[in-house]
Amino acid sequence: MVVDDDMYGTEKSFGRGSQNSDYYGESSVHRDGIAMRVLDSFKRDPNSSMLPKGGSGADGTVYDVEQAAANTANSPLARRLKGRHLQMIAIGGSIGTGLFVGSGQALANGGPGALVIAYCLVGIMLYCTVHALGEMAVLFPVAGSFSAYSTRFIDPAWGFAMGWNYALQWLVVLPLEIVAATFTIEYWTKDGGVNNNAYVAIFLVLIVVINLFGVKGYGEAEFVFAIIKITAVIGFIILGIIINVGGGPEGSYIGGKYWRNPGPFHNGFKGLCSVFVNAAFAFSGTELVGLAAAETANPRKSLPTAVKQVFWRISLFYIVSLTIVGLLVAYDEPRLLQNENGANAVASPFVIAIQNAGIEGLPSVFNAVIMIAVLSVGNSSIYGSSRTLAALAEQHQAPKIFAYIDRQGRPLVSIAFALAIGLLAFLAGADDKLRDGVFNWLLALSALSAVFTWLSICLAHIRFRKGWRVQGHSLSELAFRSQPGLIGSYVGLIFNILVLIAQFWVAFAPFGYGDLSTPVRLQRFFSLYLALPVTIAFYIPYKFYYRTSVVRSHNMDLHTGIRELNIDALIEEEREERKKWPKWKKVYKYVC
What we know:
Blueprint: H1 26-41, H2 65-73, H3 83-92, H4 97-100, H5 102-139, H6 146-153, H7 156-189, H8 196-212, H9 214-244, H10 257-260, H11 268-283, H12 288-291, H13 299-308, H14 310-328, H15 349-356, H16 362-394, H17 412-422, H18 432-447, H19 449-470, H20 485-508, H21 518-529, H22 531-546, H23 567-579, H24 583-591
Helix pairs in contact: 3-9, 3-13, 5-11, 5-13, 5-14, 5-19, 5-20, 6-7, 6-19, 7-8, 7-16, 7-17, 7-18, 7-19, 7-22, 8-16, 9-14, 9-16, 11-20, 15-16, 16-17, 18-21, 19-20, 20-21
Protein name: Amino acid permease
Organism: Macroventuria anomochaeta
């Protein structure tokens, strides 16, 4: 008899012992075998164990950084993401309502000039940030990625604060995005009489099914979603150029008319500062490439390519598309201000530009793209929050149960917790005032979280480089080096701080603040700046309780978690291979 072993070392009988029986049919026994294997896959991974004792010191109040690093390095998450998955996550993974709809509010507040300038500056900041993350993630493809790097290279208390900050960001995004998806459907149904909760149930089930397939399900879903979004953006860029030169059904030549009247800027410098926040929101999610490193089959080859392609995503999909939007839609267009629920396609400048050209049918197509984008971000929210929670648990910074990872490499308890928070989406069918009140504060939790995450990535990279140098290592030992280098991380760090300062000013003194009462101004401030007090609330108590200190350069653990043991030989082999490439391939691989 041939024995068929599965990946867990257990025999797959497929009912072989029953095939000699005339009573049991082969097909029924085969179904039982599949059912048993499905149930068996939910059991704890036999290679993992609940967190070992000793996560803290002998008195229980001293944090053990080395143990935390070992736990994240040995996480049993499945390594099933391929290069194409990472590339699509990098290029189109987080293109969502921030670009398609939120840019309309930014255009109304700052004008087309401010829109392009702010997105360019935030794009430069993010380019530096993602390269810094890529350098660390290729060397240490560990669970938790940037929150683990903060614990390892900066301060365990800061890593704790950043981990929970990032987990909360994605936990609240799921119900927000599902409700936003129901609003996109209202574009077609208007007053159709169907309760929004019916659509919420459908979207939740869809997201649950995708995530039950584990990281491979997430990767394949994002691959398809990203292709649709990228195709839509490229199609809009081509269509926008045609409309601008007068190629639309009702169109005449537009050129730079709206840059002359009403003009390129609105609300002066404060208008520009207000756009920074929208730009940061639109770019958030790019860092998921680093989080996915722990579940990538070959991060040393896949990650550098994905990281380099972020440049093309920033320049093509954001800068070029929004430049065309600014040429086709004036900032005083009344429809731009109709975005009351975060995903109103009526307020999308992309849809407005198509409608103004008199093209029928296409607005509905673009609304469908917006709905797919919303679901894509909702899907990413499950991935981002569950993996961060599992990594926090592995570092003894969250309840142990969140570290439960099954035989398919799924952090089941963390996924279930994220989906439980997603049930808040059923408020979509509640009273408008209650729903808007709840979701405004949920949105406030996630508004600035991404900026704090990016700031931490840049700071962790600066600290890592210092530790790498102090401990006698050279840059030639790195499998992938950040293109903007250490200077880029300083640029990213400074830009992130400037965005926080700009947002503080806009939150403290919003447009027309002289006409607002003090309670309204306070509410507006915290609705835009809630992430800061939340981060402080996580950081300070943890720091005092565990008495953590900044990790010194000579004490940094720069060995745990490196996946390849003979990394020097592998790097040398790749360099020899690159020397044989033709010039065009060298140029292509440098930029892509």
